[in-house]
């Protein structure tokens, strides 16, 4: 009886057909697909090298072979429609229907005619699309993926095309709880070991750096919904030493169509704002509220050391009715006993200075600019701070830093600075000609810490380690890193006052036992060191001898290397990343970047290099010349090589430290 009943029940269960794969792009070629044009290359791309989210397996069909300008198509072999749905993952540009001449899409062809179409959504997150083809069962069809588009978002990415009896919905984005418990947590290719990165998704400018209650706070521009720019909110982390970071919940989200753009954070010790409710002073965030219509300056406050935030009910506190008015940096000015703000009119390339007694009511003081690089596209993310001049007791200067989205020294985005005086009302520059903050391509929007203890005496900043022109770098499931925190000083070099940057001393806690070098001669050629690794701190003093060029190559593999070189003829320090690994994900990525650096008083070159899997930060001399560059080498590229060209050089003194990780499950205590 039981057997009969079981057979009856089994007979009543509908048989659900298994999904049938049309294409998953996991092979080394587009076998079975007809290729036209150059957009899709000659074989599937690897999803991890593109920085896409939501793909399955490793391979994808991607029309960004070299740039958004490429056009072409892929057309499948004929197949018979056998199930109710055809489903697929699609990302890339969102194209309007009826604009085929400038469209990138995937379509279903029956008798050569397109009867279903899907496009991306201006996102590098692949989302499921489902076509109901129940009325077409039994007919022959083809899939065509094409890219006739050029310019921004002129590409498409497709993966996992299936026949199925069930439609699909949603995306393949990690949830934070799932990610933290996964074996992949902070173990992905290119994930830095001691630089701050978000756990998931997009990050850009550092925001609101402040020290309070024994914690260094790092807020940052963050998209909680994807691995591309958008939905700007403030991510949040805290640390005791600026290297071992604890990720906290998002501090402030985009709400009601208003994104939370960049800004600063202060500790209101005297409760001038009136927001404080307990024994400790409130933390106040001053940020730009961005909507489609305008940008305003808004404030929010916290009475629990930044764990929860309340946006001020009478925001905005400054509203000029302008679209490009952003990135306030606020600080207390003791001589005038008021809060001061520097903020940018980005498209006008002007900076404005405001003052307030209570952080709510602001008065315009003065303006600065246009100045510096005249060809820049915009001016944003300013900072203003006072520094002592080394070896000149009692003498100080103010430093005004601001960043441009394009036109910087190494191409793309970057920062410039001015020295001068600020009296609480007006900034008067020593010269309207600026100096470069960093000669590499990947240091942007640095901001200094506020509220460091008086007996600390340091001025420290952190920058976004990326470039707007090549920002979609090949990392997944996160994108972007922060620079190491850098201590700042001013030093007179020749007749110039130069900003010097040095890694903060707490990085030394990550060092392992060093390889020591003393008076090592480098003949014309190269010398491989016994030390190796992808997380390194190298300190070298090199006597040029008779060499024309000399330096060090790191992250070296059979066909990869990143070269840090010094050229005697031009007295310049350079980073060459043309052979550094994956340089083809963007046409502007590969290159060599250089900055001026003189010999020290002993006729030698002093170098400090920080290497962390996907980046090099190079500090020349006393830190007056800095180059920051991203790189994407293979995991096996870990050798170190010294080189000389045209003669013999000598490493007079050197230390090579491997560094422990400070982030993720492998972090040192």
Automatic annotation (TrEMBL):
PANTHER family: EXOINULINASE INUD (AFU_ORTHOLOGUE AFUA_5G00480) (PTHR42800). It holds the Pfam family Glyco_hydro_32N. Its EC number is 3.2.1.80. GO terms for molecular function: fructan beta-fructosidase activity; sucrose alpha-glucosidase activity. It comes from the Bacteria. It comes from Novipirellula artificiosorum. SUPFAM superfamilies: Arabinanase/levansucrase/invertase, Concanavalin A-like lectins/glucanases. This is Levanase. Residues 507-656 form the Glycosyl hydrolase family 32 C-terminal domain. Coiled coil: none annotated. The keyword Hydrolase applies. Residues 1-17 form the signal peptide. CDD domains: GH32_Inu-like. The gene is sacC_1. GO terms for cellular component: cytoplasm.
